[in-house]
């Protein structure tokens, strides 16, 4: 289990386990263009990753040989990853360095138009401006905030593979939140806090999300919408909330409270002064940007790693539930598209209809429950919105 590598790949919409969206513009990700041995390469900026990582397909496309650690000579670099690349030249803007990458194998059904990721250690000694709304990051030589009275100043955990902010709490207590630009999601609350939030907001609408995460596999979670959410001194408004999974929690620093993905970071101005282990935050006001969420309220994922059946996980009173879909129903078709051979034949036409199609769209699902085959007509609606 890759316990020290926390990159999230959100598997979009209903058929989230089938294929990642093929359009770079469709993903809420921060992209970095570089060159590896003078070949153009495309990376995701992911503060939830521990350095320079290539996907195995990326290494193949770039013509890099890969060495398995269990066959490597004594003195090879040590890591939870099973392999690493040959030494190569990485060019990023005007900087060129000699280096090697960790190699990560992704399941065949996870398709992403990236060669790899650049993690937090790659910029941890810089001043970094993260603009989640514009989906950009900028490295600066010095701080540019002249008037900090409207900004919250907190400590950054030093010498960490991941970006953690240390938030003061009443009674001289502290909690930590992870900043994860590799996740398109909002605020992922630790399980106890998520249960507490749901209990105190019983009428808030819910939908379902599913994602692939190294170390955890496919993770299914409920998502909701918080009008206000306080994390110590940081008070966010109009933000998506969900439950952190077991890997988020196990990788979390001491007194872990939550993880902020891209959707949450869109509600913050954020500057990280890594060299001095300080972060400046300023919650944004005004209407939140639209969050591309699952408008059906159901996801279908394999029952386990060996299963080919796509099993329903559905929220009560959601459009899918109203249409008659229940937990553990097996998906056969979406409209006229057969999905039963999803491992061997991912179909882009069935990848993201629950997110990309507008409210009011009618989608027909053909399902199996026991020995019975039936159809359910789901009318999409906006579930998570300001």
Portion of residues in beta strands equals 35-45%
CA-atom Rg in angstroms: 21 Å
In spatial order, strands of the major sheet run 1-17-18-19-16-20-15-14-13-22-21-11-12
CATH topology of the largest domain: Cathepsin D, subunit A, domain 1
Please, what is the average pLDDT?
A: 85
Q: Can you give me a brief rundown of this structure?
A:
The chain has helices at 56-61, 191-200, 246-251, 262-265, 319-322, 353-356; strands spanning 9-11, 31-36, 39-46, 52-55, 66-68, 83-85, 88-92, 95-99, 102-104, 116-119, 127-131, 136-140, 152-156, 164-169, 173-179, 187-189, 207-213, 217-231, 234-243, 256-260, 268-273, 278-283, 298-302, 310-314, 330-334, 337-338, 362-369, 372-379. The chain has 386 residues and is mainly beta. It has three domains: 9-119, Acid Proteases (Cathepsin D, subunit A, domain 1); 127-140 and 149-283, Cathepsin D, subunit A, domain 1 (Beta Barrel), CATH 2.40.70; 298-379, Pdz3 Domain (Roll), CATH 2.30.42.
């Amino acid at each position: 289990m890759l316990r020290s590598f926390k990159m999230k790949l959100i598997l979009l919409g209903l058929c989230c386990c089938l294929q990642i969206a093929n359009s770079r513009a469709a993903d809420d990700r921060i992209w970095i263009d570089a060159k590896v041995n003078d070949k153009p390469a495309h990376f995701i900026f992911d503060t939830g990753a521990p350095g320079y990582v290539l996907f195995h397909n990326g290494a193949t496309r770039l013509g890099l040989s890969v060495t398995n650690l269990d066959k490597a000579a004594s003195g090879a670099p040590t890591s939870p990853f099973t392999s690493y690349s040959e030494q190569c030249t990485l060019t990023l803007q005007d900087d060129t360095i000699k280096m090697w990458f960790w190699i990560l194998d992704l399941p065949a059904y996870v398709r992403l138009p990236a060669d790899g990721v650049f993690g937090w250690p790659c910029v941890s000694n810089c001043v970094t401006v993260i603009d989640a709304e514009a989906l950009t990051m900028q490295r600066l030589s010095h701080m540019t905030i002249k008037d900090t009275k409207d900004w919250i100043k907190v400590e950054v955990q030093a010498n960490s593979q991941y970006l953690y902010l240390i938030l003061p709490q009443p009674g001289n207590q502290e909690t930590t939140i992870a900043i994860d630009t590799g996740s398109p999601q909002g605020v992922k609350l630790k399980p106890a806090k998520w249960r507490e939030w749901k209990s105190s907001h019983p009428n808030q609408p819910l939908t379902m999300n599913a994602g692939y995460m190294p170390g955890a596999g496919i993770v299914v979670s409920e998502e909701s919408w918080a009008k206000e959410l306080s994390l110590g001194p940081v008070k966010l408004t109009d933000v998506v909330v969900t439950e952190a999974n077991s890997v988020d929690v196990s990788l979390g620093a001491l007194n872990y409270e939550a993880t902020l993905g891209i959707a949450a970071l869109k509600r913050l101005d954020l500057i990280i002064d890594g060299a001095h282990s300080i972060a400046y935050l300023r919650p944004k006001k005004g209407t939140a940007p639209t969050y591309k969420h699952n408008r059906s309220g159901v996801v279908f994922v394999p029952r386990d790693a060996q299963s080919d059946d796509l099993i329903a996980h559905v929220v009560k009173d959601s459009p899918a539930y109203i249409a008659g879909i229940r937990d553990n129903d097996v998906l056969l078709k979406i409209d006229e598209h057969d999905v039963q051979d999803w491992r061997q034949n991912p179909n882009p036409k069935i990848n993201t209809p629950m997110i990309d199609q507008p409210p009011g769209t009618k989608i027909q699902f053909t399902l199996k429950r026991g020995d019975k085959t039936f159809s359910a007509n789901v009318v999409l609606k906006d579930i998570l919105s300001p």
